[in-house]
Amino acid sequence: xPLVPRRQRTYRKENGALAVVWRTKQLTLRHxxxxxxxxxxxxxxRRLHRCRLNTWLGGFLLLAILLAAAASWWGLTLDPNAMNxxxxxLPPSRGHWLGTDHFGRDIxxxxxxxxxxxxxxxxxxxxxxxxxxxxxxxWAGYKGGWWDEVIMRFIDGLMAFSGILLAIMLVTVxxxxxxxxxxxxxxxxxxxxxxxxxxxxxxxxxxxxxxxAHALGARTWDIIRYHILPNGIGPILVQATVxxxxxxxxxxxLSYLGLxxxxxxxxxxxxxxxxxxxMGRALWSVLAPGAAIFIAVMALNLMGDGIRDQxxxxxx
Length: 316
Hints:
Elements: E1 9-14, E2 17-22, E3 25-28, H1 46-73, H2 107-143, H3 145-159, H4 163-174, H5 178-188, H6 190-204, H7 208-215, H8 220-228, H9 233-256, H10 268-275, H11 284-311
Antiparallel strand pairs: 1-2, 2-3
Helix pairs in contact: 1-2, 1-11, 2-3, 2-5, 2-6, 2-9, 2-11, 3-6, 4-5, 5-9, 6-9, 7-8, 9-10, 9-11, 10-11
């Protein structure tokens, strides 16, 4: 709004919007002015409220997982591998918040330790998949030609297998363990990042600002990093949250099958497998790891929905 004396401008309502008239110039504002009494602020779209609610709810649930992992890391919980046969299959109590398993181990301590495993596997595999997939997709989409054909045929070969099946094949070849699980899940999620990034670069490589950067002598990687990739970071970021949750679910599946995290380390999937025979006698030993998996996946999906809506211009 022009910074002019108040006596030189007047306000009136035109077609449902607030208009400012100053001499011969007229400026129509799209939002209610806070300087004028009697007008309320423009209401926010309902979808914007919903996306913020999703982000806050997902962040709150994820914070609970992070606090449990931090408590296990700093030794604020009981020893997750300490056995006490005399206290086996105890129900939840003040001494054992989530009860004990068939070896007398504290379930809450094992859930907290398993959250460390889930976060490490999810973050590591997502970072690996995003780095490799975004790099391959960016190069294929920007260069085109035979580069595009070779890289995308390789990606199509990986997509011929489902993510969990490809991860099982890779872990079977490399062997179980934390590092191999991260590598297997990361490679299984490379194709989706490659395709998303390729689509972004196919659209952006013919933009005027890219041609201007070429004319100024910018290098290829500088154009990719500073001109095209920042404009397509939104879809990649949303996919990263989805991949994070998928990685946690895949790690739990591999551990359930005995191909992921090995005993005595606690893993949510392994806990489900070990508690399955005691389901009739100690239902809490099955519900606790299942609820942990559900909360972690739900938190990341809610955050992904919120980030997507925040980055969508139609929301605003």
